[in-house]
Write a structure and sequence with these properties.
The complex is a heterodimer of chains A (328) and B (118). By secondary structure, chain A is α+β, with helices and mostly antiparallel strands. Helices cover 34% and strands 27% of the residues of chain A. In chain A, strands 1-2-6-7-10-13-14-15-17 form a 9-stranded mixed β-sheet. In chain A, strands 3-5-4 form a 3-stranded antiparallel β-sheet, covered by helices on one side. Chain A has a 3-stranded antiparallel β-sheet with strand order 8-9-16, with no helix packed on it. Chain A starts with a helix and ends with a strand. Chain B has 118 residues and is of the alpha+beta class. A 4-stranded antiparallel β-sheet of chain B has the order 2-1-7-6, with no helix packed on it. The relative contact order of chain B is 0.16. The chains are: A alpha+beta (328), B alpha+beta (118).
Chain lengths: 328, 118
């Protein structure tokens, strides 16, 4: 009896005590990154993850002079590091899989619109036509660990590098004795394991009208990546027209696909990041067809009329909103 | 120790937990705070119930934070983009961030949400 009562007391005490994670806020990869890690080796793991994020930031930045990407764009060719090769190979593969809706070669267009330097400019048809000729996967040549770019071609890994980094941080954490981790890299979230209290991860999807607040909530346990691409994230206005930063690689114009945001849920962070951009460019109908042909991701779409659509798998995780289920 | 003593001990503890839970969930209106970080280090905690203005320096750069009617906003900044200034007054939700000046303002009432994507 005494033992039972003691056990009850211990359980009550442990239920009231929530373990505190080791955590850090970093300014890297052009965003704010929050890392929380629970477990015995949380501090060591946090140190390792911080190093990985800073390394990715230095390697994949398109604007930092001396970064691996900067040098490739400047020189037109480079011998690639293992990490850069890995990321680029996945970028090419996902570009091919999405029929070019995700395209790592759009940097000349991004620069033309002024999104990098934030010196915005609405290009005319001639400028667009000339710049489109510099883009496309055929301008990128990979020979083992060496890459060469066609004349004037440049890469931008901004739509995939944070996802890749989150994924590789998650894999790095597997070598530490930790219980759980949450990595929030701007609009990218990567969960690892299950929270110490056993409750579900609660990930809000930003309301495109008021992005600091959630319009819907995803609840799940275990390790996943959740990534959102939205037209409200970066844009400028000229003559009363809003021009956002997600460019359609075919037209060179901001994608007008009828969507305000796409959230992708997947086991793989790199995949989720690239697909969130690709599905936004495709629009709801083509993205739905693409999802039906796939089995490695789920998605939540918010249309420009404010309606929310969720693929079957995403629907089972979605709450706090009214939505339409997309059946397989 | 007698069984009765143990029963009383555990019962008392359970009652204290219940009372604390009631106070937490149904107690009086709690104060709202904003935590201000620069470069990942906590600089100060701001009580949002008192209207005030703060100048946060980061090297040569600065942000002006204004607390008004229980909410806080960045009302001026030396940064080029001014994204932080465009965010409305807030008292909850996603943190207010000025990436160029490495400023982060987070809220004490984060609800049960672990993260926000978008």
């Amino acid at each position: 009896m005494k033992k039972l009562l003691l056990l009850a007391l211990v359980l009550l005490l442990s239920a009231c005590a929530q373990p505190e994670p080791a955590q850090s806020d970093l300014f890297a990869m052009d965003t704010i990154i929050n890392v929380k890690i629970w477990g015995n080796e949380a501090e060591d793991a946090l140190h390792a993850v911080t190093q990985k994020i800073n390394d990715s930031s230095a390697r994949f930045s398109v604007t930092t002079e001396g970064s691996e990407l900067y040098l490739l764009n400047q020189d037109g060719s480079a011998a690639l590091s293992e990490d850069f090769s890995s990321l680029l190979a996945q970028a090419v593969s996902l570009s091919e899989r999405t029929g070019g809706a995700f395209d790592p070669t759009v940097y000349p267009l991004v620069r033309l619109w002024g999104f990098t330097a934030q010196e915005y400019h609405v290009p005319n048809a001639y400028e667009l036509e000339q710049t489109l000729q510099l883009c496309g996967l055929q301008k990128l040549h990979l020979f083992g660990a060496n890459a060469t770019l066609g004349a004037g071609a440049m890469l931008d890994l901004g739509a995939i590098a944070k996802g890749w980094t989150g994924q590789h941080c998650a894999e790095l954490l597997e070598s530490y004795n930790i219980d759980a981790a949450l990595l929030a890299l701007g609009g990218n979230v990567q969960t690892v394991g299950t929270k110490p209290d056993g409750s579900a991860w609660v990930i809000g999807i930003a309301n495109p009208e008021t992005p600091s607040e959630a319009i819907a909530t995803l609840r799940f346990t275990g390790s996943r990546a959740v990534v959102t691409s939205g037209s409200y994230q970066r844009y400028f206005e000229e003559d009363g027209i809003a021009y956002h930063h997600i460019l359609n690689p075919q037209s060179g114009l901001p994608a007008q696909s009828g969507l305000l945001s796409v959230t992708v849920i997947a086991d793989d962070g790199t995949l989720a990041d690239a697909l969130s951009t690709a599905l936004f460019v495709m629009g709801l109908d083509d993205a739905t067809a693409f999802w039906r042909e796939s089995d490695d991701f789920e998605a939540v779409f918010i249309t420009d009329s404010g309606e929310i659509f969720a693929s079957e798998g995403a629907a089972s995780l979605l709450s706090d909103c009214v939505f339409t289920v997309i059946a397989r | 120790m007698k069984t009765r003593t143990w029963v009383m001990l555990v019962s008392s503890f359970a009652i204290i937990c219940a009372v604390l839970s009631c106070l937490f969930f149904f107690g009086g209106e709690s104060k709202q705070y904003a935590e201000v970080y620069t470069d990942g280090k906590r600089l100060q905690t701001i009580d949002l119930s008192e209207d005030c203005e703060y100048r946060i320096a980061y090297g040569e750069e600065y942000n002006i934070l204004t607390v008004q009617d229980g909410k806080i906003a960045v009302t001026a900044s030396s940064c080029a983009t001014k994204d932080c200034v465009h965010r409305d007054y807030s008292d909850h939700g996603a943190p207010i961030v000025c990436i160029p000046n490495r400023l982060l303002i987070s809220f004490s009432d984060g609800g049960d949400m672990d993260a926000l994507v978008g």
